[in-house]
Amino acid sequence: KQEVTQIPAALSVPEGENLVLNCSFTDSAIYNLQWFRQDPGKGLTSLLLIQSSQREQTSGRLNASLDKSSGRSTLYIAASQPGDSATYLCAVYTSGTYKYIFGTGTRLKVLA
Amino acid sequence: DAGVIQSPRHEVTEMGQEVTLRCKPISGHDYLFWYRQTMMRGLELLIYFNNNVPIDDSGMPEDRFSAKMPNASFSTLKIQPSEPRDSAVYFCASSLEGWDTQYFGPGTRLTVL
Q1: What is the DSSP string of B63-110?
Q2: Considering CB atoms only, which of A42, A49, A102 is closest to B43?
Q3: Distance separating alpha carbons of residues B66 and B62, to the nearest angstrom
Q4: Out of B48, B99, B106, whose CB is closest to A32?
């Protein structure tokens, strides 16, 4: 059974800092992995989707990497801004289950 | 496109009452998902549809929950009778393919007293 873990559960950083969010999964037979952002009281917004054959995917200040064999993904946020404050969730699409399993998220606060 | 639309945004009801949540997916998306989010259990998939047909309902907690998709532009999630432990935020999402980028609605915050 696929399990997805995100550590730390919460993170506070000063504005301008580069930071890394972590996502671990137990079953490496994945099809792809998505990173989402959730603002308080809102739905999830997909940030990046990285296929199992890819090593990384970039969008603006965001870079997601994937190491399928070790069951890890990281989301790198460059030059963080207060507007980046949100909860970030990763979700893994596992071959055979045909659905996404979500991590519990990392709550990020960027201080001005 | 307006994105995924959910109604109501907030619902407060009493234990034992029937609750119906509604979702309109993005036009052209063949997949529709219902999720539930709580502090204790995080985001859980309840059921998903492909071309209006339920494919996997293994996440539906019990027989009190039911979901329908009568056409490509509308789905409902019904709880009857509701219980306090059903209190959560319920999200609807849609995508072109099951493994594709998922687009979430704003959610319905359900409180069962």
Answers
A1: TTEEEEEEETTEEEEEESS--GGG-EEEEEEEESSTTS--EE---EEE
A2: A102
A3: 9
A4: B99
Angle value at C-alpha B12, between B7 and B18, nearest 5 degrees: 75
Please give the Cα distance from B77 to B46 (Å, whole number): 10
Per-residue pLDDT of A40-59, as tens digits, reads 989 999 999 999 999 999 99
With contact defined as beta carbons under 8 Å apart, do B103 and B6 qualify?
A: no
Chain A interface, mutation test: which of B44, B99, B104, most A Cβ atoms within 10 Å?
B99
Interchain contact, B102 vs A46, CB within 8 Å: yes
Report residue A96's pLDDT band, with 50, 70 and 90 as the boundaries. confident
Helix (H, G, I), strand (E, B) or coil at A15: coil
At residue A39, does pLDDT exceed 90? Answer: yes
Residue B1 scores a pLDDT above 80: no
**Which tens digits make up the pLDDT trace of B5-53?**
999 999 999 999 999 999 999 999 999 999 999 999 999 999 999 999 9
Tell me the residue length of chain B.
113
Question: Which tokens in the block code for residue B57?
Answer: 């309902």
Distance CA A107, CA B4 (A): 24
State how beta strands A106-111 and A100-102 pair: unpaired
Beta carbons of B88 and B62 less than 8 angstroms apart: no
